[in-house]
Amino acid sequence: MEFNHFLSSYLPDPQASGRQLYDDMVEQAVVAEQVGYAGISIPEHHLINILLVPSPLQMAVKIASVTRRIELVTSIAVLPIRDMRVFAGEVVQADALSDSRLVLGVGRGAFRYEIEKLGVPMDSTRERFDESLAVLEALLTREEVSWDGKYYQFDPLTIMPRPEREIPLMVATMAPEGIRACARQGFSVQTTPLSGDHQMLLDQVNAFRRGKAEARNKGAGSRLSLQRATYLARDEADAREKLQLAHEYYMRFDNVFTGPGIVRNGAIEPLPRKQSIEELGNNLLICTRERMLDQLAIYAEAGIDEVIMTANFGQSQEDTLDMMQRFGEQIIPYFSNNQPAKTKRIGQCL
């Protein structure tokens, strides 16, 4: 099992420096490579103060310029708000500029607030995503592509320059039926139980395994990446402090994910949560070394190929970097023997 550091890009104070925020993210990526993470994941969100990376490909290229081996994963690029004829060329360019380390995670978007502010009805995103993904795959793998669909109609065209490799592709989905359907088509999958319990996680993992089995040879290279809030605490006091911060983070996250979407001047209003902080602590991996090893061993046994670690809940950059160093020294070596070869990891996902 491998580990991927998620660049959470959280700005609790909306007046804080955006430049410092992105400098911190780049520094985290450099440290992730140094201490043994297999990859970093870059979110995409707009108009809000959590997960705020308007251009994940741009961030990937920047990180590529200061690292040498680490994979650069978009988590995720939102397809329904883009024109695939432009985006396909941007993907090829980003892959070239990042030394062919790009892994393209794609999805339909999660927050109604931002999607509809950008002019796309949320209720249409599933249908738009399906067609956009089909168009993107065609443009990345064929020349003189024409299209006659509901959202795209165009005469034959060829994106330039042409891709020099088959760019690894992952599809993000949370619902078990969606995970199974994607895996059945041979896609690698990004998923997350968010703050949900272990049974929710197992339902997602089992859906992927069933879909991959149904795909047979088509799914031979597909992988499951599962995102979870994961923080290796120094001690119990540190764990309690970070759990409190995580609870406050989810007060904002839930507002735009399942709540009313109350946002003022780009800042998401924190709203009360039904889930108690104790219940949240039981579900997340914010803990000291022994519990972390025990829980991650369960993840590995379940068949998760990669854990995408959300580890920034608004704490200082120093705390984040110290945690990454601890994780690299105390946790990653216990799972390193299970790491497949690099070429196998980024094998065919289409």
Residue share in helices? 40-55%
Poorly predicted runs? 338-350
Largest sheet: 8 strands, parallel, barrel
**Approximate strand percentage:** 15-25%
Straight-line distance between termini: 22 Å
GO molecular function: monooxygenase activity; oxidoreductase activity, acting on paired donors, with incorporation or reduction of molecular oxygen
Organism: Metapseudomonas resinovorans NBRC 106553
Domain Luciferase-like: 1-274
Pfam families: Bac_luciferase (PF00296)
Could you characterize what this model shows?
The protein is α/β, with parallel strands linked by helices. It is built from 13 helices and 14 strands. It has helices at residues 18-35, 56-64, 84-97, 112-117, 125-141, 176-184, 198-215, 236-257, 277-283, 289-302, 317-330, 332-335, 342-345, and strands spanning 2-6, 39-42, 71-74, 77-78, 102-107, 145-148, 153-157, 169-172, 188-191, 224-232, 263-264, 267-268, 285-287, 306-310. It has an eight-stranded parallel β-barrel, surrounded by eight helices. It starts with a strand and ends in a 5-residue tail after the last helix. Mean pLDDT is 95; it is low at 338-350.
Summarize the structure.
The chain is an alpha/beta fold and 350 residues long.
Task: Give the key terms.
350 residues, alpha/beta, TIM Barrel, eight-stranded parallel barrel, 13 helices, disordered C terminus, Putative oxidoreductase, oxidoreductase activity, acting on paired donors, with incorporation or reduction of molecular oxygen, Luciferase-like_dom, Luciferase-like_sf
